[in-house]
Design brief:
- The chain has 289 residues and is an alpha/beta fold.
- The chain is built from 8 helices and 11 strands.
- The protein is globular.
- Bound molecules: S-adenosylmethionine.
Length: 289
């Protein structure tokens, strides 16, 4: 049995859309590969670009890795709610990928053999206009009922990735995603980079680890950034820890409290406010300071 399927792409004219989708770097990609510019040497080999002093040159802003032509989209799990019982049903996630490449929001998608309506469900979820056609009355009814319910299975494989090197927790990945940063693996000093550059340079981000003090985290971030001319470095503070020691070096790391920590601070502050109002003979527990 084939373990893969091949998708053919045809266009009647040269005038067609083919958007480049970007994915996160694989966990095996090291920082140098992501950050540094490359050029061909005299033997045609790709090498890191260096300036006249022999220092490596950091590359331009990168959006991630362009989607390759091998996609890992799992078959629908036999118990998936998305399953309609239609024998040749395709996963919506597959159609999402195809439509994201060849259409933009508002475009019209036509599937003249729509079967259980997967293309239409995908088009609707991605805000495309759509027309589904099928010779079978049952198929049309099924497609219409799916369009009303819009059940789309999540894929753990796609969400988490297949990479065994993945070492970030879901919480860390969420923090990085919230600040529009992509994760990097296998580096204890840098957890990710902002997708936008600052003053033409990449911005490394570290998330304070569960057992790390703020100072340790800053030191690791500084060490991992050594020799790179970053104009901004960000530490996401995740825990309230007092200053445990003084630095033996200068640091210009910007500390940003995680949303969770900010929320905890807010609750603490409001609770203290309420307590102090009550202690001062307060008459209303709803007063906040
Ligand atoms: C392979 S199925 C499509 C399944 C679909 N990709 C899905 O995810 O459910 C092909 C469909 O083409 C329909 N079909 C076959 N001949 C047709 C024709 N001449 N006009 C319209 N639909 C036709 C069949 O009824 C069947 O539902």
């Amino acid at each position: 049995m084939n373990a893969h399927q091949v998708i053919f792409f045809y266009s009647k004219t040269q005038d067609f859309k083919f958007n480049t989708l970007y994915t996160d770097y694989s966990a095996t990609t090291n920082l140098d590969q992501i950050l540094q510019d490359r050029e061909r040497n005299e033997n045609g080999k790709s090498v890191y670009k260096k300036d006249e002093n022999g220092n490596v040159i950091l590359g331009k802003e990168k959006k991630g890795v362009p989607l390759s032509d091998v996609w890992e989209i799992p078959y629908l799990n036999p118990k998936a709610k998305e399953r309609t019982g239609y024998p040749t049903q395709k996963p919506v996630l597959l159609l999402n990928q195809i439509l994201n490449i060849v259409t933009d929001e508002g475009d019209l998608v036509v599937d003249p053999f729509c079967g259980s309506g997967t293309t239409c469900v995908s088009a609707k979820s991605l805000k495309r206009e759509f027309i589904g056609i099928d010779i079978s009355q049952d198929a049309v009814e099924l497609a219409n009922s799916r369009l009303e319910e819009m059940i789309i299975s999540e894929s753990n494989l796609l969400n988490k990735g297949t990479n065994e090197y993945q070492e970030k927790t879901e919480k860390e990945l969420a923090i990085l995603q919230n600040i529009n940063a992509f994760p990097v693996q296998r580096n204890s000093g840098i957890d990710g980079f902002l997708k936008d550059h600052f003053e033409g340079m990449p911005v490394p981000v570290k998330i304070q680890g569960e057992y790390e003090t703020v100072e340790d985290a800053i030191e690791k971030l500084e060490k991992a950034s050594y020799g790179k001319d970053y104009k901004m470095k960000i530490l996401i503070q995740t825990r309230e820890t007092g200053i445990s020691r003084l630095f033996g070096f200068e640091s210009d790391v910007t500390i940003v409290k995680s949303l969770e920590l900010q929320t905890r601070d807010l609750l603490k502050k409001n609770n203290e406010g309420i307590t102090s109002v009550l202690q001062n003979g307060g008459f209303s527990a709803s007063i906040k300071v």
